[in-house]
Specification:
This protein has a 7-stranded parallel sheet. Strands 2-3 form a two-stranded antiparallel ribbon. The chain has a single domain, classed as TIM Barrel, CATH 3.20.20. The chain has helices spanning 16-27, 50-54, 96-112, 129-136, 142-163, 177-185, 195-210, 240-252, 271-274, 298-309, 332-343; strands at 33-35, 59-66, 75-80, 121-126, 169-175, 218-223, 259-263, 287-293, 317-320. The protein is built from 11 helices and 9 strands. Helix 1 packs across helix 3, helix 4 crosses helix 5 and helix 10 packs across helix 11 (332-343). By secondary structure, the protein is α/β, with parallel strands linked by helices.
């Protein structure tokens, strides 16, 4: 059965135009949306956002070294300057809209030239506060500054909606390990004292953000357990937490959701991992995407995971667990070829 392909976000190309042309040539008929590859300084996901914190008059670097997992790249978190309070912190420009507007010019030009399929939309990936501030702010600032950052993210959505044609774009929220690692580990944090409370609070935040996206702009979610140094922050037991979150978003968001992406680790082709999918309650307009394509075991391994998934769901698109941005550029042609062969 032919399947659509979903690209999560980053692709290690030289620039947006190269990414648009490369992935269109390899996968065009199977793609509904194309990201700009998050090239250049954005290749390592949210690390390019550090200047937002470094330039704040109310913040300074602390002496706390934070790692997403033991072998992840260390980051120095920020704290309040002496005499400052959380009320002094603001985030005026997160640059998402500015970058999207620039990339869209290339997208529109290449689409007019026939190098991007006419049916494709331009995909814009946004990252909610909980992932960004987990990396950059000390824990005591998470509760007061999460809504401040997300208010700035809503302003970015408003700018995108004002500048770009709604029928040509899609907005994806990256829901990463700041959510799913905490749920898997049953962490106690500012987001919840119990797993149920944490799930409820993250769901509420995501529903609020998603409801800010105009209904004629496509809405996507990418779920993730992390990819720092090609390693998850924590390994998922199964797809249960992702199914719970997908059902929560489906029930809480009034506007349509076009796609929800869920990762599949390379070594998980067992029934136990996929079994929670039998409880998935997506609406008909929402496509499930399973991130079961892995470069390291190619077509054979990907088909093994796909066959396991098909025991519980049949209609889904395929992709990788996470973006390609941290991969060596010379591996990308083969990775795209695997997608094309498995998609059929």
């Amino acid at each position: 059965m032919p399947r659509d392909v979903h690209l999560v976000g980053s692709v290690p190309g030289a620039n947006a135009a190269e990414v648009f042309e490369t992935v269109s040539a390899a996968l065009g008929p199977r793609l509904k949306r194309i990201p700009d590859g998050e090239t250049g300084v954005r290749a390592d996901w949210i690390t390019w956002l550090e200047p937002v914190f470094a330039s704040s008059p109310a913040l300074e670097k602390s002496d706390e070294v934070f790692r997403l997992h033991p072998t992840a790249t260390p980051r120095i978190r920020y704290r309040l300057k002496p005499g400052r309070s959380a009320r002094d912190v603001s985030f005026d420009n997160l640059f998402y809209a500015d970058i999207a507007e620039q990339s869209y010019r290339d997208f529109a030009r290449l689409k007019a030239e026939g190098k991007i399929p006419a049916h494709c939309r331009f995909q814009i990936d946004l990252v909610p506060a909980h992932s960004v501030i987990w990396l950059y702010l000390q824990d005591d600032l998470h509760a007061p500054l999460d809504p401040v950052f997300n208010a700035a993210l809503k302003r970015e959505i408003e700018k995108i909606a004002a500048r770009l044609p709604h029928d040509q774009i899609a907005i994806q929220f990256d829901v990463a390990s700041a959510v799913f690692a905490r749920l898997e580990r049953k962490d106690v944090s500012n987001y919840g004292r119990t797993k149920d409370e944490t799930q409820e609070n993250f769901g509420r935040i995501l529903i609020d953000l998603a409801s800010h996206v105009p209904a004629d702009i496509e809405l996507l979610f990418h779920f993730c357990y992390g990819d720092s140094n090609h390693k998850h922050v924590v390994e998922p037991t199964d797809m249960g937490d992702m199914v719970d979150m997908a059902n929560r978003l489906t029930g809480g968001i009034a506007r349509p959701i076009q796609l929800i992406h869920m990762p599949v680790p390379r070594d998980r082709s067992d029934d136990a991992y996929f079994a929670p999918l039998k409880n998935l309650r997506l609406k008909p307009q929402t496509q499930l995407c399973l991130g079961l394509v892995h470069h390291t075991d190619g077509v054979a391994g990907t088909r093994q995971r796909l066959a396991a998934a098909e025991k519980f769901v049949t209609a889904f698109s395929i992709g990788t667990e996470c973006g390609f941005g941290r991969r060596r550029p010379e591996t990308i042609p083969e990775l795209l070829r695997i997608h094309a062969e498995v998609a059929g």
